């Protein structure tokens, strides 16, 4: 399988705080990797480094054979192929759903209005919220807003999707509709790195689960191994705590 993402000895410091302490990770094209681990273990920082929302202190990031950490790298170009979905949706409140999904297509990809709208409506249709196109985000449920955020990312035709706890801000009854959209995306072959606490989703959809703690990858492997038969005490005690809730 061709490699989609390669992280080599990735470090990130915030002042004296070493949030990532040497991450090596390869993600293959079409692979779905779920990242689990306690709060503060560096999961969000890792995702944010992959698309250079955070600049790593040290190490190398290669996406699609493109070295993002090279000093001459064209980051705007590279970022276009990476979609990101956040816990808090991050839709623009003053724009309609349709405008939210067309604005980056217009500005970044320079698509004309008609093409951008067609693409937007196609994607909104796919995530099941096309009928909300003319609404403002505040009129939508959290689950609908998150599906719009996914449609917005997909409208840019990314090769890689990063999800940072996409269902953590949702009421429990709305989690399923977002996970269903993500599962279909995985089935369609999208390469995905998903930070999540949804262990059932990870077990079912992930090709690989990564357990992070203290800025390092402590354990990784097939979901059944990592989630049901973890080798390390740190993973064991984390999973015990998560499953108690
Ligand atoms: N911009 C920042 N400046 C300073 N510290 C940060 C910043 N972003 C994250 N951190 C710290 O880095 C650590 C890891 O954070 P984060 O990557 O958000 O962990 P996780 O997503 O696993 O909860 C935390 O201690 C957090 O407070
Ligand atoms: Mg986080």
UniProtKB/TrEMBL annotation:
Subcellular location field: Cell membrane
Keyword Transcription regulation: no
Keywords from the UniProt entry: Amino-acid transport, ATP-binding, Cell membrane, Membrane, Nucleotide-binding, Transport
GO MF term (any one): ATP binding
ABC transporter domain residues: 5-239
Pfam families according to UniProt: ABC_tran (PF00005)
Record SUPFAM superfamilies: P-loop containing nucleoside triphosphate hydrolases (SSF52540)
Primary location class: membrane
CDD domains: ABC_HisP_GlnQ
Membrane topology (UniProt): Peripheral membrane protein
InterPro entries: AAA+_ATPase, ABC_ATPase_HisP-typ, ABC_transporter-like_ATP-bd, ABC_transporter-like_CS, MetN_ABC_transporter-like, P-loop_NTPase
Signal peptide: none
PANTHER family xref list: AMINO ACID IMPORT ATP-BINDING PROTEIN, GLUTAMATE_ASPARTATE IMPORT ATP-BINDING PROTEIN GLTL
The family this protein is said to belong to: Belongs to the ABC transporter superfamily.
Name by which UniProt lists this protein: Amino acid ABC transporter ATP-binding protein
């Amino acid at each position: 399988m061709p490699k989609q993402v390669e992280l080599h000895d990735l470090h990130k410091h915030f002042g004296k705080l070493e949030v990532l302490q040497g991450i090596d990770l390869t993600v293959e094209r079409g692979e779905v990797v779920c990242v689990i681990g306690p709060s503060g273990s560096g999961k969000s920082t890792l995702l944010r480094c992959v698309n250079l929302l955070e600049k790593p202190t040290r190490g190398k990031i290669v996406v699609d054979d493109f070295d993002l950490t090279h000093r001459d790298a064209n980051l705007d170009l590279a970022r276009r192929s990476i979609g990101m979905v956040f816990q808090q949706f991050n839709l623009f409140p003053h724009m309609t759903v349709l405008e939210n999904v067309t604005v980056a297509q217009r500005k970044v990809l320079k698509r004309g209005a008609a093409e951008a709208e067609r693409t937007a409506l196609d994607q909104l249709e796919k995530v099941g919220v096309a009928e909300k196109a003319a609404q403002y985000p505040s009129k939508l449920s959290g689950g609908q807003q998150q599906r719009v955020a996914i449609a917005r990312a997909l409208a840019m035709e990314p090769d890689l999707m990063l999800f940072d706890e996409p269902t953590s801000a949702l009421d429990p009854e709305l989690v399923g509709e977002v996970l269903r959209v993500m599962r279909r995306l995985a089935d369609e072959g999208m390469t995905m790195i998903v930070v999540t606490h949804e262990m059932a989703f990870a077990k079912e959809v992930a090709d690989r689960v990564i357990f992070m703690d203290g800025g390092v990858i402590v354990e990784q492997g097939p979901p059944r191994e990592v989630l049901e038969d973890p080798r390390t005490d740190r993973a064991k005690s984390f999973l015990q705590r998560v499953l108690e809730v």
